[in-house]
Amino acid sequence: MIQDNGASRKGMGLHYQYRRLKQQLQWHYRRYGRTGAVALLDLKQFFPGAPRQVIYQRHARYIPRPDLRRVVDQIVAESPATGPGRGMPLGLEPSQQEMVSLPSAVDNWLKCQVGAHCAGHYMDDYYIIMPDVERLKEIVREMVRRFEALGIRVNKRKCKIVPLTEPFRFCKARFTLTETGAVKINGSRDGVKRARRKLRMFRRELDEGKRTLEGVDEFMNSQEAYYRNFNDHGRVLRLRRLHYAIFGGATCSELSKTA
Description:
Number of strands: 7
Radius of gyration: 23 Å
Oligomer: single chain
């Protein structure tokens, strides 16, 4: 598997993929400025539509021991299927490992044959950054063809090419390459909306005796910890102001300090 495939791998993960994308945007800026664009691809029903025949072929290629290969094939065969010869369950460790390596043929073509330095993916979400937009479009069309040849469907409605002068979203995070070359990463704005609704609901539940200040305090800590990973200091402040307006600043931790 390529280095820029960070899902379900030791020492990697979602924030590793964010850092890699940030590094690649900076690498591109040092050479081309904000010339070019980023292509975003999304694989359709990645787990439910996984072709099992392709998985078995990978086992035959990379697992030379017949006895071990039979065991691995049996694990896949006994997994719940969504259709004839299709589907892998979401969340199970063997299934995660099968799926994270399933598109490796396309990944290696993109990195080795095409030579796309600024490219990677997190499970079914792909990005490719290039200075030549027309060349980028050709590569995207060829990637779609290669995915479909493997039996992996692409959600063409979600595939887009965004100029680097505009912000874009990858795995629910918003990336902005500024004129100075700084890369700003903002977390999911939908999470703020949900947090605001929940804080108002928690106030009602607190008045009814269905929730404690400890639970509210833990929720606020989790929200702040998420947005501290991004350039979202303003969102953290707005959530704190709303929390203070609803609960008067009386959190469990503050009460314990004054006790």
